[in-house]
């Protein structure tokens, strides 16, 4: 059984950096990492999910996921792929509109390679830092207290996953209440023109996957962009 929550111990060697939705723009991400002299021997990169769909390099996701310095949670676009293959219960026309065509047009065996890699991704990551624990989720926190997260996955798994991967409520309602029990939570999913903090929830999807957007690389020690 794959756990929905992955605990990652402190990086004593280098930096921990978070990035928003990638959506198949791995070359652009690589260029952003080069600008901050990302060192794969010491630094680690945490993705808020949505590695694929929309962009031209979706198939690169497998190579990135195989790197020991790359961590990712499952976004709603990974969820589309998993549900499509496993249940067939995905609105295909809707997904194609949001960039899923590259996947839908792959041979079944190749689709399975991606789903195998996506299905083992956690929905939440908890990273320990010198300043406290940081949560990584795709869309929003499904709990008001981070300490209750594992319990929420156990007792209401479907609802908890759906909220974590799809919700835009916090931004829509401009809700600045902090999530207890955690230093900060980093999310993507809803594009923002610049990083936006509500309470202790940091929205960092500055649409690096769009021509006029950019990748925000957030230092998890300082909680500021590099
Ligand atoms: Mn998303």
Task: Describe this entry's structure for a reader.
- The chain is an alpha/beta fold.
- The chain has a single domain, classed as 4-Layer Sandwich (Purple Acid Phosphatase, chain A, domain 2), CATH 3.60.21.
- Helices cover 31% and strands 18% of the residues.
- The chain has helices at 26-35, 61-65, 76-87, 92-97, 101-104, 108-119, 149-155, 157-166, 169-172; strands at residues 5-8, 16-19, 44-47, 70-72, 124-129, 132-136, 184-187, 196-198, 201-203, 217-219, 224-225.
- The strands form 2 sheets. A 6-stranded mixed β-sheet has the order 1-5-6-7-9-8, with no helix packed on it.
- Helix 3 crosses helix 6 and helix 7 crosses helix 8 (157-166).
- The mean pLDDT is 97.
- Manganese (II) ion (MN) binds at residues 21, 50, 75-77, 138, 189.
Q: Radius of gyration, rounded?
A: 16 Å
> What ligands can be seen in this structure?
manganese (II) ion
| Tally of individual helices | 9
| CATH topology assignment | Purple Acid Phosphatase, chain A, domain 2
How much of the polypeptide forms β-strand, as a percent range? 15-25%
Taking the sheet with the most strands, its summary is: 6 strands, mixed
CATH homologous superfamily designation:
Metallo-dependent phosphatases
Contiguous runs where pLDDT drops below 50 for at least 5 residues: none
| Mean model confidence by pLDDT | 97
CATH class wording:
Alpha Beta
Strand segment tally: 11
Tell me the helix content.
Answer: 25-40%
Structural classification: alpha/beta
CATH architecture: 4-Layer Sandwich
Shape: globular
Succession of helices and strands: EEHEHEHHHHEEHHHEEEEE
**Gap between N and C termini, in Å?**
36 Å
What is the number of independent domains? 1
The strand order across the widest sheet is 1-5-6-7-9-8
